[in-house]
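ERR on first pass: missing label on line 2. Operator R.T. fixed the label and resubmitted. Corrected input:
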Amino acid sequence: MSMNREPNKEQLTRRLAKIVGKDAVLADERELVVYECDAYTLQRNSPTAVVLPRSTEEVAAVVRLCAEMDVPIIPRGAGTSLSGAVLAVDGGVMIALTRMNRVLNIDPRNRRALVEAGCVNAWITRDASAHGLFYAPDPSSQTACTIGGNIATNSGGPHTLKNGVTTNHVLGYEMILPDGTIEWLGAEPDGGEEVGGYDLRGAAIGSEGMFGVVTTVLVRLMKTPPAFKTFLCVFESVDEASQAVSGIIAAGIVPAALEMMDQLITQALEEAYHFGFPLDAGAVLIVELDGLAKGVEQQAKRVEEVCLQNNASEVRLAKDDAERAALWKCRKRAFGAIGRLSPNYVTQDGVVPRSKLPEIMRFIRSVSDKYELRIPNVFHAGDGNIHPLILYDEREPDQVKRALQAGHDILDKCIELGGSVTGEHGIGAEKIDFMAKQFSKDDLDAMQQLRRVFDPDKRCNPHKMFPGAKRCAEFAQRAQITA
Amino acid sequence: MTLEPNSIAELQELLPQSQRVGGVSLEAVAELVEHVPEDMTAIAQVGMTLAEFQSRLAKANQWLPIDPPHPETVTIGELLANNLNGPRRFGYGTIRDWLIGLAVVLPDGRLIRNGGKVVKNVAGFDLCRLFVGAKNELGVIVEAAFKLLPMPEAEAHLAKRCDSLGQAEELLEKIWASDLQPMVLDLHRIDGEPVTLVVGFAGPSADVETQSDAANALGFAAEASLDYDARFRQTAPNFSSLAPGNLISALRNLSDEPFVARAGNGVIYHASAIPSEAPSPDLQKRVKAIFDPKGVLAG
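pass 2 clean. output:
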C-alpha cells in the first residue's frame, strides 16, 4: 500500500479549511479524541483530521483533495457502529456527515423519502408518520444512528423479521467515489425503481464505508399497519422460549418482531426502567404481530396457544399503544441497562439457522461457565441473530483476554452451525480474523474484485474486513472514554 | 456459443477455455440441495425449474413468493440472471429480496460463494445482489439459497373493467389511500378489451375476506385470473419504469397501445418499451472488465 501515512498535516488542514471552512475542520488532538473509536472501544486511533461538510459539493471537494494528497478517507455517521467500522486505523481524513442531516422531502404518493446521509434513522419515520407511513429498518440505536451508516452496515433491527433490512428499503443514493466522482446508484428521486445494468446500488450496501461516501439517500416508506398486538411471553427457561420461537414459525406465522431476553437482561432492565418484567423468568419473548385487525386477532390466538404449549407461565398482551411503546423502549435500551451489571461488556453479533437456537444458547451457557464470565442475551430470535453480551472488567487484563476468547468461541460455533459471524454489526476492524473462517480465499478475492470497481487504490476506509489488514498498535489498553 | 456442462466441475473446466459464452444450460445441475422448513430457507441448484422448486417447498406448506410467467419452464438460474417477477411483485418484492446466498462460477473457473444460508448476514460485501439481473455476464450462478414464506392461508384476485383511464386512476388512488393491503395491483389493456384494474389479497383468511368485500363494494368482481401476465409479456417482454405516481400520465401517452402495468411499482410492459440505458456507464464497464477481463462471457 502506497498511502501517504504522514501527510503534511498543516498543509492538509489548511486546504481542508479552504473547502469547508475553519469551523468544519478538527485537527487538534483534544478535539479528535471523540473520533478515535466508535461503539467498539477495544481499538482506538485518531484520524489526522475530521471534516464536517455541509453539502455534496463539499464532500466531493474534500474527497478529491484526499485523492490528490493520497490520504485515506474514512466516512462516518454517528459513530454507533459496534465493530470498529469507522476506526481510523492508519490516520487519514474522517468525513463526518453529521451536519448533512436534513429530511429533504417526504413523497407520500410514491411512498419515498429523500434524506441527507447524516439524517438520523428515527427522523424519517417521525416526518413520514403524518402521512401514515414509516421507514421499516429500526436498529436499536435508531434515535442516534444515521441513514448513511445504515447503508454502510446494511442495518437491521427488531422489526426486520417481517420487513427486511436496509438493502430492502433503500431505493437509491448518491455516493462520492474515492476519486471524487459523484455517482447516483439505483432509483433516482423521481425515477422508476427498475434501473438498467448491474445492481451497483445493492452491491455497495453493506460495504462498510469502503466504496465511497454516501451523501443523499432515497428510501422506501411503508404504510403503517392498522393493527398491532404485542405480547410479552414468560418462560421458565431459554430452552422453552427457543422451542416456542420454532413453534410460532412452524405455525406459518411471520411476526413483525420476535425477540428474546434472558433473565440477566430482564433483571437489569427491571432495575433500570421498572417495566414490570417478572424477575424469576428464565427468558421472555416479545412477539409483535401487525397487519389488519382480524388477521392479527387470528394469529394472536395461535401465538398464545403455541407459547402455552411450550410451558409459558404467562402471555401478557400490551394493553395499549403506550404500554407497547414502553416495552419497545426497554428492549432497545437493553444494552444501556447492562452498565448496571458490569463496568464493561462486548456485544457479540452472530447468526445461526433458527432451528439451531436452542443449541447455540446451550453453547453460550457452557462458554459462560468455562470462562467464568456472565453472558446475558438479548436478541432477534426470529432471525436466529444472537447478541450475547460478554461482561468483563477491563481493569483486569485476564478478564479482557477471557472475554475476547469467549466471543471467539461463540462465533466459531455460529460458523460451525451453518451461520455467520455477523447479522447486522459488520466485520469492521473487529472480526477480520473470522472472514477466512467463514469464506474461502476465492470468496474473499471475489469481494476484493468488487472493491476494485469502486476503490482501486484501497484508500477508502482501509484496513478493514480482509485478513492481513493492519491493526492499531494500541489495543485494549486504555480506559473507556467517559461520555 | 452455448455450454451444456454435466456438472459444476465441468463448467469450471469449460469456462476458462471459452469465449463469448452466450448461454449455459445447467439442466444437469438441478438438485434441491436443502430445504429446512423450521428455518424457512432452501438451497437449490439453478437447473431446477421454478415450478419444481415450488412443488418441493409446498410439501412443507412454504413457497418462494416470486411469480414470473411460465414457472414450469423458467429455471432458478434464469429467474436470478434476469431478475424475473410477476404480478405479486407489489406485495412480495423481487428475487433480490429473498436471496440469501449464491454459488457462482467465475469466468476463470473459480467457484465462489457469497452470503450464506441464514436469513440475516452482513459478513463481507454483497455480491449476491450484483449477480442478480446480471444475465450471467459476470459469472454463472450455479446454486442459490433463499429465505421462504409460509403459503398464505388464503388468496383472492378481483378485477374491475373501467370505462376510461380516468376512472381507473380514480379507483387506483382510492385503493392507494385506503387501509387495503393489496399484494397485486395491476392495470391492463389487452386483447382489445377495456382498461382493467386487478387487485389481489393474500394472508389470513379473515383478512382476505374483509378486503375482498371492500373491493366488491368498489365494483370489483371476484375470481380474476392472473394469466394475462404470461400471455401478454410473450408479445411485450420489455418495460418502462417510472415513479408509481407518474404511471397514469405515462399510460395516457401510450394512446391505444396494449399494456400490462404494475401500478404499485411503476412498471409498464408494452411492445414499444425500450430497455433503459444503464446509468454510471464507467462503473458498469469497470465491473465487467474486472470480473470478466478476457471476455469469456457475452455482454
